[in-house]
Amino acid sequence: MLSLCLVGLGFAGTSFATPAEEKEQGLIALVAMEQVCDKANPGMKSDVENAMAKDSTIDEATKAEVRKIKSDPAYKFKVSSMASNLMNSPIGAYAAKDMCKTYGTK
């Protein structure tokens, strides 16, 4: 389910993006959802690691890319911008309702 949501969140406006750019946008959305879930559910201790652990379709290489995006300051603006866009969009609000469950602790 998480992978399907990533495709949906992969973002309109990337119709001219390369597959690599589209994948990066999806991974940025995955990291940004952690922030969205933190705002939507204070005290839940949302973590993208929890979401990745619950989705067996995410391979180790992709997990490494997500960790890089989460920890690299160069991505900070992209992640916060994506989180803001998601929080202010109907899709983001709907996705937060369902996806945030996977970001919480087990």
Write a concise synopsis of the structure shown.
The chain has 106 residues and is an all-alpha fold. Helix content is 71%, strand content 0%. The protein has six helices and no strands.
Instruction: Please state the CA-atom Rg, rounded to the nearest Å.
Output: 13 Å
End-to-end Cα distance: 17 Å
* Percent helix range: over 70%
Quickly count the domains. Answer: 1
Number of helices: 6
**Shape descriptor:** globular
The major pleated sheet works out as:
none
Q: Determine the mean pLDDT.
A: 82
- Which series of helices and strands comes N to C? HHHHHH
- What structural category do the secondary elements indicate? mainly alpha
Number of separate strands: 0
* Beta-strand content estimate: under 5%
List the uncertain runs. Answer: none
Task: Please give a structural write-up.
There is one protein chain. With 106 residues, the protein is mainly alpha-helical. It has one domain (2-103). It is built from 6 helices and no strands. The two termini are 17 Å apart. Residues 1-17 form the signal peptide. Keywords: Signal.
Record keyword descriptors for this entry:
106 residues, mainly alpha, signal
SSE topology:
Layout: H1 2-9, H2 19-40, H3 48-54, H4 60-71, H5 76-87, H6 90-103
Helix pairs in contact: 1-6, 2-4, 2-5, 2-6, 3-6
Signal peptide: 1-17
Keywords: Signal
